[in-house]
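Throughout our pipeline, every protein is held as a single compact record rather than as scattered files. Such a record has a labelled line for the sequence and another for the backbone structure tokens. This encoding replaces a full spatial description with a residue-level series of whole-number codes. For reference, a complete record is included directly beneath this paragraph.
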Amino acid sequence: MTTFSVADVPSMAGRTAVVTGANSGIGRVTARVLAERGARVLLAVRDVDKGRAAAATMTGAVEVRRLDLADLSSIRTFARRLTEPIDLLINNAGVSLPPMSRTADGFESQFGTNHLGHFALTNLLLPQVRERVVTVASLAHLIGAIDFTDLNWERRPYRGHAAYGQSKLANLLFTSELHRRLREAGSPVVATAAHPGISATDLMRSQGRNPRLRAERALIGLVAQNAEHGALPTLYAATADLPGGGYAGPRGLMGLRGAPGPARRSAKARDAAAARRLWRVSEELTGVAFPLTTSRAA
């Protein structure tokens, strides 16, 4: 397929989708389109009032559920209360370039929310997932590096861009290792990832008054596509014929914008040994393990 648009999203009737961070930006568009195509969509959001405001603009079967990915207790509560089958889990929510801060469990906020929060959520919900897990990564993974000696920036001087890149690289390593484990378990579930290219959303809302970040955002706005187009790679990864472990993104302007299709990832994002190590460490940090039985030792 050389082009992909909202019109190419098939009927989702009879399916249930969970979309994290669905009250704004790419997540909101993703949830809206899936609902329009007939899916029952659960908006998993930290701010329930904002979630309800977003839901009010959508047609179809839409529900709002509270989920704070920066708090493992909130993730466990969300998963415990969600007992029905899930066809699509869209790991979309994220934070970008906040001042140094920590989650409720003491993790650096970007690594804790973008990676560890979705890692825990996915594994807690996986026994109920029937079709696909899509995790939204970023071109920022290209500048990312996994520092296993200091994942939570407890000893290094904090650098927001590097921390964000680490969290997005972790998203891709998580997807590849999840795909491997699902395959070994004989599961029909497919794990894919997507990136929106450069998209004008409020992801960087936490940047505050930092002049440098404000200037960067202004420059990004000159080439960025809107959330409607930024959501297309996620919808492609969720509904198109993308193989397990696949990665989708815009195909035009060096991956910055355009119609989605299969995307390339860095060599670091293809490091199977790092993916396995990150998975083990993530299990230790969150206390959440892969719930399916594999045919061989992981």
Q: What stands out?
A: The longest helix spans residues 160-184. The first strand starts at residue 16 and ends at 20.
